[in-house]
Each structure stands twice: as structure tokens, then as C-alpha cells.
Protein: Energy-coupling factor transport system substrate-specific component
Amino acid sequence: MNFLIIVFVYVVCHGLTALVVTPIQSVFLPEVTVFASLMYLPHGVRVLATWAYGWKAIPALMVGSSLSAWLFSPSEDLNFLEPALIESLLVGAASAFIAFEFARFAGYNLYFGGSVKLRWKGVIAVGALASLINSLGQTLVFSDLIDWEVIIRVSAVYAAGDLIGLIVCMFVLMFVFRWSRVFRALRN
Structure:
């Protein structure tokens, strides 16, 4: 069930990004929009799913990102990106896990249940690290397709968009937790 929830939430967040954020962004940054988003909500799903489920989130994230690419990417973009698409999906799905593992090896187990108290700041820091890992990985994957004049800007948009997407998803999750407590209290 958790697998399907992660896939569903990933696809919904990708849809919001593709159908709302991307059209607005393409007006201002058309040359980077095919590669990166200024508010990439699926990064929040990646980080939060990995926070909750660890490596077990990676297959669901791969399926969610594959479905999202198929559902929301224009076919000309898919054809243009096709050779690197699988590598891109793997980099995106694994970036949060790699970041959480770096934190764990450094002595900070920030996974859900890894400490007595939930550390949102730590999750944001891991999300920022995951964003950097994703940004570097995506830049390497698409290095043959991105003009070197815009590669720094594309990398910056990856990093910023991932972090903004994580923060938005964390706020939404915070409200979901609060509303679930309210509804539980009303039922009792």
C-alpha cells in the first residue's frame, strides 16, 4: 500500500509541477525549463518517502517518476531526452537515499524513527544535500544535451527547485498531520 501511495503522490506532485509551475517558468527561463523546475514538488516526495521508508522508497519513486514522465512530458521532450531518461530517473530516485546515508554515516540518523525527536531542520538539510546530489547527477546525465553556457544556471535551478519543492511538501505534510490529529480527536 505504501508503494502505491508514494507512486500516486509523486505523480500528483509531478502533474502540479508540469501543469502549473512549468508553463509559468517557461515564460521567464525557457532554455532551462526542459531540464529543471524552480519548484519541483516531486523532490519533496523523494525526500519524505525516503525519510519514512529508506531504500524501500526507491522502487516506488522510480515507478512514480516513470509514470510522470510518460503522462506529463511532451513526446518531443521524451524523444529528445530518451537516451538519458533512465539514468535521470535513477539519479532522482536515489539522491535522497544517498543523502540520508551520508547523514547517517556522519552520525545523524534522520530517518523516521531514527531518533526520539523528529528533526525537521535535519530533514531540510538532508533535502538540500539530496538536491545537490541530484543537481550534480542530472547535470552529468544531461551534459551532452545542455549547452555549457547555461549549465551553471540549470544546476542552480535544479538545486533551488528541489529545495523549494521539499519545503512546500513539508508544509503540506505538516497540515495533513495536524488535520489527521483533529479528525482523530473528533472521532473519539
Q: What stands out?
A: The two ends are 26 Å apart (CA to CA). The chain has one domain: 2-187. DSSP finds seven helices and no strands in the chain. The mean pLDDT is 86.
